[in-house]
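Spend some time on this chain, tokens included, and walk me through the fold:

. . .
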Amino acid sequence: MTTLGTGVLRMRNWLRDHPLALDGALALAVYVAMVVGSFADPGAHHGPTFGTRAPAPGSVVLMALGALALVWRRRRPMAVLAATGGLAVVELVAIDPPAPVVMSTVIALYTVAARTDRPTTWRVGLLTMAVLTAAAMFFGSAPWYSQENLGIFAWTGMAGAAGDAVRSRRAFVGAIRERAERAERTREEEARRRVAEERLRIARDLHDVVAHHIALVNVQAGVAAHVMDKRPDQAKEALAHVREASRSALNELRATVGLLRQSGDPTAPTEPAPGLAVLDALVETVRRAGLPVEVACAAEGPPLPAAVDLAAYRVIQEALTNVRKHAGPGAKAEVSVVRVGATAEVMVLDNGRGTADRAGGDLAGGGHGLLGMRERVTALGGTLTAGPRYGGGFRVHAILPLKARAQEPEQPGAAGRTGENA
């Protein structure tokens, strides 16, 4: 059975790839059926009988021409219908009793109905039915109500209906297939979009971690190198700060890279993402690096949503890193986090004179700090402004909605995707 099924499937695929051969086989089958039918006498009392009549030579020619025209039924359906219809009318008018040349017209009408639209099928079908039925009724020797005449009417009508049904089903299946392909493309595009957003989020986190801690390490290492000979105690303290900053950087990098592990990999770190709860530790590391920082954080109300909490922390971290890198000697910074209605406002100010590239932020040197902050805040539906202050210094101001558009980690299925667009 398996071999037979495989052979049938192979034959069907071959015929689908060679439609002209299929139509040639159909034309041959129709010709044989018409010739066999021309030997039947439908007027007998007990049903059709064979051997009582034979087709006229003209009928044989007309049947051959009608069957031959069906070979091109897919390429020129309307022309084939007109040709076979004309041959059938000639047979009905000129030869009595007529041979079943009309069978080729029935096949041609089915093809037209299956390959055109419904209005065309109605017009062409009704015209074919009317012409053939009228020719059979008015020019045949049998009564107008004979079963042969009614059979022509019925067969042409069924051919049009069957072709229209096949066309409708083909269109329905095509629509379903197109919808499925569109849904598959949409799923793939959505997956690519989510992957791109996740990569961007991880890149922002890596930048925030590396830029902040490496800047502190650089500063403390410079201090240690400067006072190593004259004040070894202060150099030792600076190196201790370097060690602590590097350890913090490694811990945060390990937590961030852990998000990239596969399900079968070793267990990833389970530390919570940094937030305003560890803001004091962040400020303390900056103070030890030599930058005075004052903090004003309104703690009233429930905790901030996880996505907003992380974004606020990263904005403060990046802003303080930029102050330490660009504000110049003697600068001071102020950090404030307050709730205003349905938003949380984060502001970082400094009074530094700035270095040569301070006007353009870290972007002037090819960095991505301000760009990353703005992308992170915008992803939550907030706004961020950064620029020089009147009278000197720099100002970073972020407004974060408490009902962020991003999906938060505590929601089902969103763990590890803080800051991702919904």
